[in-house]
Amino acid sequence: MQANFVIDLGEKAQVPIISYSASSPSLTSIRSPYFFRATQNDSTQVNAISAIVQAFGWREAVPIYVDNEYGKGVIPYLTDALQAIDTRIPYRCVISPAATDDEIVEELYKLMTMQTRVFIVHMSPSLGSRFFIKASEVGMMSEGYVWIMTDGMTSSITPQVIDSMQGVLGVRPYVPNTQALEDFRVRWKRKFQQVESELNIYGLWAYDAATILAIAIEKAGIANFGFQKTNVSSNSTDISALGFSRNGENLIEALSNTRVTGLTGDIHFVNGQLPSSAFQIVNLIGEGARVLGFWTPRNGLVKKLNSITNTSLYSTSKSNLAPVIWPGDSTSVPKGWEIPTNGNKLRIGVPVKDGFSEFVKVTRDAGTKTTTVTGYCIDVFEAVVKALPYALPYEYIPFAKPDGGSAGTYDDMVYQLYLGSFDAVVGDTTVIANRSLYADFTLPYTESGVSMIVPIKDNNNKNAWVFLKPLTWDLWMASFCFFVFIGFVVWVLEHRINEDFRGPPSHQVGTSFWFSFSTMVFAHREIVVSNLARTVVIIWCFVVLILTQSYTASLTSLLTVQQLLPTVTDVNQLIKNGQYVGYQEGSFVVGILKGLGFDESKLKVYNSTEECDELFSKGSGNGGIAAAFDEVPYTKLFLAQYCSKYTLVEPTFKTDGFGFAFPKGSPLVPDVSRAILNVTEGDKMKEIEQEWFGKQSNCPDPSSSVSSSSLSLQSFWGLFLIAGVASVSALLIFTARFVYEHRQASMRSDSKASIWSRILYLFKIFDQKDLKSHTFRKSERNEIQLKYPPSMGAPSPSICSVHTDFPVEEGTPSPEYGDPSSNGQPPQEVVPNIELANTNQETSIAIEGTRDN
């Protein structure tokens, strides 16, 4: 208020007003060209404070400020800075400038009953000193509390109160330790020895303000500081009687354009304000303040100012601060909130419902008028509370009417958190988007999603043509084509060298198909002699083996296993046929069904698994339903009881499962979420599920109850590819060899013949036997007995053997010498009658004898 008055006075008198202590942000709104602030605006430090809060992860903070212009001016800026980092302000503590010690203590006790333990203090040094002394006396400077002071108090700490402020954090403008500052301190102590303490930051700003003013006057060349009088009334209290300065505007211009290096650093005015500077973050320990780090508008929290680079990013990491000694000499970071020992228990709202009592069941004893809450969700919550690192007192409050019935839907129950009726909601409450607008949810502790339940029917049709079902039509066709193709390939490879594949055309076609299709049962008796054909047959037999085994297994399954199929597989089919569907009463699922296009008249409500089964039994045409939509935990419970009659089908609509709800900004949410992870990852969750839902081993696996699809070509195209590549490769190799071997014969046939004629000639050769093949040779050794002619001068008849390695037709052998038919005379003809099987082949005959020649 004093600053406002003086600024208004300077405005009227056209005299610049320089302040080194008026830091309230509200003064900026005056926008007077005659006001120069030679101190930091309080709004510049709120981002440094919010960076500290964000670095340590505190979700709530309570501002404590003096009830005047100085205290109120910074609160809007502090609120905006905390909201920007998602930190809530649950309460504002306002202290009167004239508050007594009893009034301060009363306010402190009120703060002790709250959960929040992070306090931001913004008040004058004199009032702040009394406040911290009383906070220490009532025990609020102990472990678990967090105190942060603004620069007004941090820069004006006196030794008399520092013992009551141990562990407090503070921010203050950074003043570089220069030689000029050291020389000034020496001069100050020498001249004012009676002053015990050094000048604080406000004293240094005052010195710099006087310095820049003196330099500005010299730059402006002002010698006359007179006032020009105006016509005023005789009233001596009229301010206008002062007149106005003749050099005010010149001095304003000089101050705006003057820049000096003062004791606090670079001093210059931008729109009458000092630019925002770096702040020191200090920790009050022992008899002084220990520097933890710095905050700058550009880089956020940093350890050292000289380590800042132009590429540094804005940081709010606590690793950039030195270790903190917190109140109570603790080195553990306070979590920022506590359950007050003298506070009330947490009010836990629980739903009241008739069915699905396995999840939540509220029982009221009329005799003792006590309420008992049990169920799966309750056991999970109690296990989570035990996993917390601290005690959490609570009590269950049913969300019910006076008559005991439910007081509304689940949305209504969660909305009570926003109204302040509950401190938490525990039950089978699903995390969905519209509920998160007025409540914070923990991590889910159940599976998520909404599924459709439909009845199942036996589709095991054992008709006369069931043997065709194991394979799809495309696989049947592909198999048939490959049987024909393999028969053709083997015929080509064996036709010239294998008697089994020769003969009349009909015989050759029948033999080829017989050979190929008989491989299906491995009954082929024809022998293949070509290595290429053997390779093709081996690969094809492997393919046939896989096909037959797969066919046998699939047919066996069709004939023996019960084939259970869902009666409905498509949601659109239900909508198109106008069939009725069911949902659980009070569930958000009704919104999903309407969004899918279901008419509201086609929706039926059920409250329990038994009622749902009854609706299914009636059927959609008789007042029942054809399908039911519910969340995964409920569907699992339903199928555990009726697994032989119903099944789940796609699609599954995504949701986030069951979670615990708390008011917006509640500090309990992260701790409870971490405890949920600890419980769900351990054996405790399995024990709770088994206790409430039992073992479901008697229920068949849904995947085994649904008929498997027929085998398709997609499953075997790799095998067919291998067989096809092998067969085509064998054909190409055979063709290349055949053409190469008979290239001369085709050229000699007629040099002027066309290509087509030569191809026909090659086909004629192909249709003939390949007599050079080993399959047309006799494997036995032929022995022919010869006699030497007399002209060779043999003294006596000798016997020799002629060995041949080619087929021959033996003639009539000559009688041996001395045979009775020879009459004792040597024969005139000694060369045997040998007819070669192939007269075009040149053959050598080796004769072995006892004579040297």
Automatic annotation (TrEMBL):
<dbReference type="InterPro" id="IPR019594">
    <property type="entry name" value="Glu/Gly-bd"/>
</dbReference>
<feature type="transmembrane region" description="Helical">
    <location>
        <begin position="716"/>
        <end position="740"/>
    </location>
</feature>
<keyword id="KW-1133">Transmembrane helix</keyword>
<keyword id="KW-0325">Glycoprotein</keyword>
<keyword id="KW-0406">Ion transport</keyword>
<dbReference type="InterPro" id="IPR015683">
    <property type="entry name" value="Ionotropic_Glu_rcpt"/>
</dbReference>
<feature type="region of interest" description="Disordered">
    <location>
        <begin position="802"/>
        <end position="853"/>
    </location>
</feature>
<keyword id="KW-0675">Receptor</keyword>
<keyword id="KW-0813">Transport</keyword>
<feature type="transmembrane region" description="Helical">
    <location>
        <begin position="475"/>
        <end position="493"/>
    </location>
</feature>
<dbReference type="InterPro" id="IPR028082">
    <property type="entry name" value="Peripla_BP_I"/>
</dbReference>
<comment type="function">
    <text>Glutamate-gated receptor that probably acts as a non-selective cation channel. May be involved in light-signal transduction and calcium homeostasis via the regulation of calcium influx into cells.</text>
</comment>
<feature type="domain" description="Ionotropic glutamate receptor C-terminal">
    <location>
        <begin position="345"/>
        <end position="695"/>
    </location>
</feature>
<dbReference type="InterPro" id="IPR017103">
    <property type="entry name" value="Iontropic_Glu_rcpt_pln"/>
</dbReference>
<comment type="function">
    <text>Glutamate-gated receptor that probably acts as non-selective cation channel.</text>
</comment>
<keyword id="KW-0472">Membrane</keyword>
<comment type="similarity">
    <text>Belongs to the glutamate-gated ion channel (TC 1.A.10.1) family.</text>
</comment>
<dbReference type="Pfam" id="PF10613">
    <property type="entry name" value="Lig_chan-Glu_bd"/>
</dbReference>
<dbReference type="InterPro" id="IPR044440">
    <property type="entry name" value="GABAb_receptor_plant_PBP1"/>
</dbReference>
<dbReference type="Pfam" id="PF01094">
    <property type="entry name" value="ANF_receptor"/>
</dbReference>
<protein>
    <recommendedName>
        <fullName>Glutamate receptor</fullName>
    </recommendedName>
</protein>
<keyword id="KW-0732">Signal</keyword>
<keyword id="KW-0812">Transmembrane</keyword>
<dbReference type="InterPro" id="IPR001320">
    <property type="entry name" value="Iontro_rcpt_C"/>
</dbReference>
<keyword id="KW-0407">Ion channel</keyword>
<keyword id="KW-1071">Ligand-gated ion channel</keyword>
<dbReference type="Pfam" id="PF00060">
    <property type="entry name" value="Lig_chan"/>
</dbReference>
<comment type="subunit">
    <text>May form heteromers.</text>
</comment>
<dbReference type="InterPro" id="IPR001828">
    <property type="entry name" value="ANF_lig-bd_rcpt"/>
</dbReference>
<feature type="transmembrane region" description="Helical">
    <location>
        <begin position="532"/>
        <end position="551"/>
    </location>
</feature>
